[in-house]
Structures are given as C-alpha cells and as structure tokens.
Design a protein that fits this description.
Elements: H1 3-16, H2 18-54, E1 59-64, H3 68-73, H4 85-91, E2 97-112, E3 115-124, H5 126-132, E4 136-139, H6 144-149, E5 153-156, H7 158-164, E6 174-177, E7 180-188, E8 201-205, H8 206-213, E9 220-225, H9 231-245, E10 252-256, H10 257-300, H11 302-310, H12 315-352, H13 360-386, H14 390-395
Helix pairs in contact: 1-12, 2-10, 2-12, 2-13, 10-12, 10-13, 12-13
C-alpha cells in the first residue's frame, strides 16, 4: 500500500471521529503554540532591549573615572568637566571615527512666574540632534542659525511641559533657566521604551549654554564609528589619546554599548530557552494523549486489522498505516498550533510595542517537532497493531 493510500485512510479515520481527533490535537496545538509564542516574544523582547541599550548605530560612550590617586591629590576633580575642545579636535582625527558628539549638562532651576522646578540644562550641537534623533512634537526644531548665533532658545522635554507648564503648550513662552531667559521654541516627543524615564530637560545650543555657565568644556562625549567592525579599534584609540592628553593612566575609558547589548541578548536567550522548555512540556503531554487515542483506535479496529492481515497485509504495512495516522494527527495539530502561536505573538507584540519575531526556523522546527512527536508516541500503538494475531483479531467483537 502506497503512502498516499495510507494518508487517505488516516484522514478518513480522523474524519470519522471528528470530536475525538480535535480533542487529541488540542494538546499538540497548545504545546506548539506556546513554544512559538514564547520564542517569538523572547526574540522580540531581545531585539527591543538591544535597540534601547545601543541607541544610535555604531556608538561608543566615553567616560571619565579618576583614580584614587587623582582624587586624593585633587578632591574636586569630579566637579570639573572631563572633556575639552582640544579633546574633541584630537578625537576627530581618528580615522575610524565618523563624528564626535559632545554635550554639556548642568543641573539648574527653571522658573515660570512663581513656579520653580529642578531641570537639566543640556548644551548640544547640531550633530547631537542628528545622532540621537530628537523629534519635536510641538513647535520647531533648533535651526542652524540658532546654533551659529547662540540664540537664547531651547527645546523642552515632555516631562518639563507637564510639570512646569501644567501640560499646556510652552511654545513661545520664556522661562528663566539659571536666572537666564530662554524662549521655548519646541517640545520633544514623549520618550518610549524600557529605559525612558522622562526627565525634565531643556536642550539649547552649546554656544548659548557656554555663555550662561561660562564654560567651554563638555561633560558627555559619544563617538560614532564609520563601520561596526571599527568600533573596538576606535574606542581603544580614543581612550589612549585622552589618557595621553590628560596625563592619566586609565581614567578615560570607553563603553561599547553593542557589547553590553550582546551580553543582555545572551541572558534573554537563556531565559527564552528555559521558558520555552517549560512550554514544551505541554507538547510531551499532548504526545501522551496521541498515544492514548491511537491505542484506543487499535483496540476499536482490531477486527479491521485482522481482515487486512488475512487478506495479505504484512506487519510492516500495518505498522506504517498507524504510524502515518499518528503523524498526520500531530502534523495537523502542529500546523494549527503554529497559526495560533503566530497570531497570539503578533497581538502581544502589538500591544506591548515591540517587534514580533516569528522566524522561519521556529516554524519549520514546530512542524518537524510535531511529526517527531507523532512518530515517537505512535510507535507503541502501531507496533501493537502489527503484532496482533490475524485469527484472534477476526474473532474479536
């Protein structure tokens, strides 16, 4: 008997007992669906975490951590801005560096009429807006003329709009930042993501910030490499140059955010594997259900098996028939489970706001695993059917 004939017989048997077949497949559907959902959500969460950690592409954060000796010799060393204009010019000469983005932050008071709040005053350059993609929700962006002329204008964070302006639009209003008038020309979009806490900030041209606070140095420094493969080399060169310029040993260091993201990715993969394995237990339970029903089916069809064997069917043919029936049952359940898992994962990712990554490897794995479950848990019933004695089977009532 050909495989197609066995397949037709298997489908006919499943159709003859629709409710029983559906209930049996339910364990497989839930098991495969659960694995698909867990893996898809895990991969989507990992992608979102990496994006939140790495931020803009190919970036390296440079930071200053003075040694104990430096702190002992100058207790106020941490109060100084760690980066100078000379540092910026030196780092821009590194071949692997595409651009150097510097900014300065000063904690100040922002006052509107009688209301005062604590605010971070951030002096930025045009490159800062391009690199960090500051998007304006209301008003306008900082223009080139604002940066060149050092105009007393600024962008307010969404949180500052809520706290200082009671949710009303601040565009066109003048606030006192560090007792200096700053006209708010725009409001930034509300940040999204796990690491977005919504702080109260005013972004202004660096020239404006320098005139307000009387400093030309920078407190934050970010390098952007020209190629992902050059990140490590650019970071090492930057740290070496800064330590040489400031006559320090290892006080200036770099953080490759992509390496941190890779480490976080490994953790999320392990968690996904653990949870996916727990979800896979339901597949095992579903397989036991398939074996149970196939054993019942063998018992019910004992007389049919006896007639087939009396007409010349071999034990191998009977074994193949019931194995194909078991595989068909689990395969249909697996395909339905993939559809269920795909749909639920898409819904969860839509409402959670992160990507749903249902990879083709997971789909193919789900189908193959369903077939393997069918073979493994179908062997015992199929073997039992093939071992029946034809004479005893014909006598079975």
């Amino acid at each position: 008997m050909s495989v197609m004939e066995n397949l037709k017989m298997a489908l006919s048997s499943l159709k003859a007992h629709k409710l029983r077949s559906i209930l049996t497949m339910l364990g497989i559907i839930i098991g495969v669906g659960a694995v698909i959902i867990v893996v898809a959500i895990g991969q989507g969460g990992e992608a979102m975490l990496k994006e939140q950690i790495t931020g803009p592409g190919n970036t390296i954060e440079v930071f200053y951590q003075p040694s104990d000796e430096e702190i002992r010799s100058n207790p106020n060393v941490m109060l100084k801005a760690p980066f100078t204009q000379e540092d910026i010019r030196a780092l821009e000469q590194i071949p692997e560096v595409k651009r150097v983005v510097a900014s300065s932050t000063q904690f100040s008071k922002a006052r509107l009429q009688e209301k005062t709040v604590d605010v971070s005053s951030v002096g930025i350059t045009k490159d800062y807006i391009d690199l960090y993609e500051l998007k304006v929700e209301k008003g306008r962006e900082l223009s080139s003329s604002d940066f060149l002329g050092g105009r007393r204008v600024g962008l307010a964070s969404n949180k500052l709009q809520e706290e200082l302006f009671d949710g009303e639009s601040p565009v066109g209003k003048v606030v006192l930042v560090a007792n200096q008038p700053i006209e708010i020309i725009g409001v930034l979009e509300k940040p999204e993501g796990l690491f977005s806490f919504g702080s109260m900030e005013v972004y202004m041209p660096f020239q404006t910030w320098r005139m307000m606070y009387g400093s030309s140095d920078y407190t934050q420094l970010t390098l952007q490499a020209d190629d992902p493969d050059h990140i490590q080399a650019a970071g090492k060169k930057a740290a070496r140059i800064l330590n040489e310029l400031h006559n320090t040993e290892e006080s200036y260091q770099v953080i490759n955010m992509e390496e941190i993201a890779a480490g976080v990715g490994q953790i999320t993969k392990i968690m996904t594997l653990i949870i996916g394995s727990i979800a896979g237990i339901s597949l095992f339970v579903g397989g036991i259900g398939v074996m149970n029903i196939m054993l019942v089916s063998v018992t019910e069809r004992t007389r049919e098996i006896g007639i087939r064997m009396a007409l010349g069917a071999t034990r191998k043919q009977v074994l193949t028939q019931f194995l194909i029936e078991s595989v068909t049952l689990t395969l249909i359940g697996g395909i339905l489970g993939i559809g269920l898992g795909w749909g639920v994962a898409t819904l969860v990712s839509f409402f959670a706001g992160w990507p749903s990554l249902v990879s083709w490897q997971v789909v193919v794995g789900g189908v193959l695993f369903s077939m393997i479950i069918g073979v493994i848990f179908g062997i015992l019933p199929a073997n039992k059917a093939s071992m029946l004695d034809p004479i005893e089977s014909l006598r079975y009532e």
